[in-house]
Design goal:
- The chain is an all-alpha fold and about 80 residues long.
- It has one domain.
- Helices cover about 80% and strands about 0% of the residues.
- It is elongated, with a radius of gyration of 17 Å.
């Protein structure tokens, strides 16, 4: 990956981050509604899905960082 690719990916990720944060906030605010559903285990299922997505997202982030040029990381992500 070159520096231009890194910038493009960073802009893309920064673009969808607000939507992810908003969705997670909405899910948190609706926990009681999930708990109240007549079908049992919905909250646990949602929680497990979020745990799995977090693991996958962390792996993706690690792969992207590993593929970036060090110069890009230092200048854009404050990693030294």
């Amino acid at each position: 990956m070159n520096e231009s690719d890194g910038k493009s990916i960073l802009v893309m990720v920064e673009g969808f981050m607000p939507n992810i944060i908003d969705t997670l906030d909405q899910m948190k605010n609706k926990k009681q509604a999930f708990d109240a559903l007549p079908v049992g285990g919905v909250t646990g299922l949602v929680k497990q899905d979020l745990i799995d997505m977090n693991s996958n997202t962390t792996a993706l982030g690690t792969a992207l960082i590993d593929a970036c040029p060090v110069r890009f990381l230092v200048s854009h992500l404050n990693i030294s």
